[in-house]
Amino acid sequence: MGTTNRTLKQKAYHELTEFLVIALYLWVVFGLLLVYKSVILDEEHIDYLAHGLALMNALAFAKVVLIARALHLGDKANDRPLIYPTLLKSALFSLVLTACKILEDAAVGLYRGKSFSQSIADLGGGTWKGIATLTVLLFAVLIPFFGFSELQRVLGEGKLGQIFFRPHDASQTVDALML
User: Fold this and answer.
1) Phi, then psi, of 113 in degrees rounded to 5
2) Do 119 and 101 lie in a common domain?
3) pTM beyond cutoff 0.70
4) pLDDT tens readout for residues 13-53
5) 90 with 139: CB under 8 angstroms?
6) 76 lies in which domain range?
7) 139: which residues sit within 8 A by CB, 6+ positions away?
8) Structurally, how many domains does the chain consist of?
C-alpha cells in the first residue's frame, strides 16, 4: 500500500510504530552505553546511576530522527548502492543528534545559570575530543539501524520484517529477494 492511499489513522499508526522502533533501538544503545560508563566509573569507585536518562534521550532523539527523515536528510544518495545512503545517513544523523544533545545540555545549563562549558561537561567530558568520540560512536551504532532501514526501503515495506521475523523456507526467501 502506497503512502498516498493511506488514511490519516493508518499514517498515524505507521508513524507511531516507526517512532517506537527508533526509540527502542536508541534506548537499548543508550542504556548499554550508560551501563558501560557505570562499570568503568565503578572501577574507580565512583557511583554513577543515570539509567532513566537513556529512555528520555531515546524518546527525544527518536522524534528528532523522524523529523530529520521527514525533511529527507540524506535522501540524495538513495539511488546509489545501499552502502552510500546507509553511511551518509548514519553520519548526518549522528551529527544532528550530537548537535541536538549539545543544544539540549546548553539550554538546561543556561536555565540553571551555568556556563556553556559547565553545561556540556557530562557530554564526553565536555571536551571537543570527547564529543567527537561520542559522535563517532553514535555513527557506528546507527549503521545497522540505517542499513536495515535502507534495505527495507529497497525491498519494499514489510518485506524485511517478514524475512527476519516469520518462519520461512530458505529457498523461498532467495526467490522473494530475486523478484
Assistant:
1) 80, 25
2) yes
3) yes
4) 988 999 999 999 989 988 888 888 778 777 776 666 565 67
5) yes
6) 72-179
7) 90, 91, 94
8) 2
